[in-house]
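Quiz preparation item.
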């Protein structure tokens, strides 16, 4: 019997923001070459425990200068994030969610206040809490219009174990809302969609839906809008005015980056004020995208009542050769995933491939010092059959 040694994808990332702050390290990210839309997204990963790092799994698309026409659906862990006692930017508040903050029985999925509490996240540290966010900008009369950037933190199911063990995370992207699970027991994700669809822990709904909810409408909750997102950028229409079956197309992305800001004016941003240690890393074992197969005009609010097809994007990083599929057809890492090389668009700034290290069957992105010039060799990428970057 042949014993297959288990390996993994470890992303140790050098992070950089639009403005590089004193002491800030650099990062690297991986982004799919194919765009995806409505469906169920899944990742089995281990987050970085280093304060200042951001470990993430998210969808991303931009078409134009930030912030106009910028879309993200984010799952992040930010162990260094710390509240400072005030809402520094009322247009981009941070919210702490506690309790059961998704309802499978309510028509709009919004929970009862007896079961869920939302409050401005003003003090304390995020620690092992998960961050859920939509980051959607669109233009109105040519001017950027900020609407959905309320970063919601929820305590993980497993506490600090999320930094030392693998867990599986899911989020649903549908015409009716965005739904996140918390950390669930690690799964060896398969090409077939899960037979038992995971229950969400948090939901974001279009602002009109939330406005019609007597308990959670923004008029009664002016300090935060944790359940709100602007669905318009994520629900494109066809030429006849009907809803597009695909939704807005975005790229599956993973990165580990230094989100720390060491100046006093930005202590509440992203990763907090402490820079991560060089060598900090995060790891990824599986990634899968299961497309929504329920017709969009038949979609109901509960995402677990919908149907999803076999994974049209699938990666298994745990074997020596790796397994990479697009529409159930084999491809290569290089054809499915691309990594940054040199300057990256705001807000991450410079992300450099030299922070991508590859062992046999293992992809590692590590916190390291930022580089001033693009690398011109691939010495750090040796000894990995499926990582053939050029």
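Solution:
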């Amino acid at each position: 019997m042949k014993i297959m040694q288990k390996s993994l994808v470890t992303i140790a990332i050098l992070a950089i923001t639009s403005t590089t702050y004193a002491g800030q390290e650099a990062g690297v990210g991986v982004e799919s070459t194919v765009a995806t839309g409505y469906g169920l997204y899944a990742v089995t990963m281990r987050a970085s425990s280093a304060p200042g790092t951001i470990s993430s799994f998210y969808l991303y698309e931009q078409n134009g200068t930030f912030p106009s026409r910028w879309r993200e659906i984010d799952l992040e862990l930010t162990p260094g994030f710390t509240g400072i006692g005030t809402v520094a930017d009322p247009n981009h508040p941070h919210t702490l969610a506690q309790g059961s903050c998704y309802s499978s029985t309510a028509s709009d999925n919004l929970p009862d206040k007896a079961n869920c509490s939302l409050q401005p996240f003003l003090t304390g540290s995020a620690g092992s809490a998960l961050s859920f966010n939509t980051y959607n900008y669109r233009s109105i009369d040519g001017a950027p219009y900020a609407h959905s950037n309320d970063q919601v933190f929820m305590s993980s199911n497993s506490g600090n174990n999320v930094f030392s063990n693998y867990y599986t995370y899911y989020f649903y992207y549908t015409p009716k809302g965005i739904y996140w699970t918390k950390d669930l027991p690690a799964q060896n994700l398969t090409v077939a969609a899960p037979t038992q669809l995971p229950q969400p822990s948090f939901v974001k709904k279009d602002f009109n839906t939330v406005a019609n909810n007597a308990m959670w409408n923004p008029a009664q909750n002016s300090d935060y809008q944790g359940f709100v997102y602007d669905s318009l950028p994520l629900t494109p229409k066809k030429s006849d005015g009907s809803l597009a079956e695909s939704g807005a197309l975005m790229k599956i992305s993973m990165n580990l980056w230094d989100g720390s800001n060491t100046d006093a004016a930005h202590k509440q941003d992203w990763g907090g004020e402490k820079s991560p240690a060089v060598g900090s890393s995060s790891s990824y074992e599986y990634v899968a995208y299961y497309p929504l197969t329920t017709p969009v005009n038949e979609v109901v609010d509960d995402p677990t009542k919908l149907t999803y097809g076999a994974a049209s994007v699938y990666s298994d990083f745990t074997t020596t050769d790796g397994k990479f599929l697009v529409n159930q057809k084999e491809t290569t890492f290089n054809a499915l995933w691309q990594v940054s090389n040199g300057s990256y668009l705001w807000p991450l700034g410079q992300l450099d491939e030299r922070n991508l290290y590859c062992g046999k069957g293992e992809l590692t992105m590590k916190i390291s010092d930022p580089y001033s010039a693009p690398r011109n060799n691939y010495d750090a990428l040796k000894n990995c059959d499926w990582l053939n970057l050029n």
